[in-house]
Amino acid sequence: xxxxxxxxxxxMLCATIGCSPRQSDRGDAAGNVTNETGTxxxxxxxxxxxAAAATALARRYFALIEAGEFEQARxxxxxDGADAGGDAKALxxxxxxxxxYDATIxxxxxxxxxxxxDYVNVGIAVDAAVAKSGKEQRLEGPxxxxxRSDTLKADAAGASDSRGWRIWGVxxxxxx
Length: 176
Known about the structure:
alpha+beta
């Protein structure tokens, strides 16, 4: 078996094992699963309004980064920006190695719910120019969003266009 086929097979096996309910998990008719520790989890397609809100938040974040508006970008992170890992100056430092940073926003993944918190990832591809060398670099990865499931009920009246999504992680790097 060729190495790439073996790696793909192992990756698919690990993904299947990681996403499948374990024998000790108990499921209901809606596909919700609770394991022996009481952790409730489910996977569902993202409805169009939630997908649009998640994508819009990712687009807004990277537009702010490209514009150098790091304080505003930090406010999109969960826990009042604390999940960004520091203040606006620290966030600016993360993007300082790049002279330009042009992000293309992809589609959100399936919605995962664990203990009343919804999670979704939005794929990002970035064309960046390294500040010191000017070298063009391609970066890829997800922006990871979450919200409390009950936030949607509060936002249903149209009070917020984010539908409760907040950033809890960004993992963008050069593909290998």
